[in-house]
Amino acid sequence: MTIQNPSVSIKHLDLAFGAVKVLQNLNLEIADGEFLVLLGSSGCGKSTLLNVIAGLLEPTDGQIWIKGENVTWAEPSERGIGMVFQSYALYPQMTVEGNLTFGLKNAKVPKDEIARRVARAAEILQIEPLLKRKPGALSGGQRQRVAIGRALVRDVEVFLFDEPLSNLDAKLRADLRVELKRLHNNLKNTMIYVTHDQVEAMTLADRIAIMKGGKIMQLGTPAEIYGKPQNLYVADFIGSPSMTFFKGTLKGDVIAIPGHDLPLGNYDFKERPADGTPAIIGIRPEHVMTGDNLRSAPCTTEVTVDLVEPMGSDTLVYCEFGGETFRIRMDGQAQVTPGDRLTIGIDPAAASLFDTESEVRL
């Protein structure tokens, strides 16, 4: 995907701490007004990349361009960015209004302009009743809104978020996630958001960059990342629970896994491998057919239920299949107990096939 006039452009970026390579030849272009999420497990380099974009860390090599200007060696204050950290980092002795105006006063912004920006941020974030309170009198969610407001009043083109919701409880995270999405829809600013939470990534992002070892493993829309993971790492990382993987061999129109031959049907191969090629097939729990859906299944089999996890809206069922612990997502009202025999259907056309050696999608 080529982006004309990207808002942020990262070119051949390297960062090393001694012999440890944290970012490796990283290239990324972010469109104007795009919400891009950097997703990965701890230590993958996502927060480091955000800090390099912000100017808080200096790269070993490569360039960073923001709004058409090379800012690789520019000070953070000269980059036209606003950053929201994981910790609220509010001044406890100041009111909310004081926290919002502090940076603007230091930058010698005129009083009437400060008032306009604070009023606008307070309205957007719904913190108008809180302006005279101090941070100690606020809840965690309210403090995070103030932290976002402090970035918002800078009136910049690019916002950087470093896991801003990770300190909040589950319900508050869900509520603020909606507010962040609404904020982006209203402002249309470029936003780069770091998280290890795939639900946040899938619900917020226009595109997701999944990182591992300082590299981007896949860059795409949430639908592309979920539906067509380009390698085994992404396939295993995305999904809760993740895919179940089976090692097998391609033979004509089937993939042979231990004890079963699964028809490939209309699987969309990039390039059809030769017969006898070892492959790995990954099947998501939600792509296993049960009940009335079995009518459209290209093949069915029986399994014995080992474990049941009721989760309200759905039920996760664990069983043994093809030598692996196989997970099946069923309706929340499904009446299933351990020991039951269950007929299931599998459609490999909805699955993902990977090369055994390179782990790249076939």
From TrEMBL:
UniProt family annotation: Belongs to the ABC transporter superfamily.
GO biological process, one term: carbohydrate transport
Keywords on record: ATP-binding, Nucleotide-binding, Transport
All residue ranges annotated as the ABC transporter domain in the record: 8-238
Gene Ontology terms: cellular component: ATP-binding cassette (ABC) transporter complex, substrate-binding subunit-containing
Molecular function terms, GO-annotated: ABC-type transporter activity; ATP binding; ATP hydrolysis activity
Entry protein name: Carbohydrate ABC transporter ATP-binding protein, CUT1 family
Organism per entry: Loktanella atrilutea
Organism ancestry: Bacteria, Pseudomonadati, Pseudomonadota, Alphaproteobacteria, Rhodobacterales
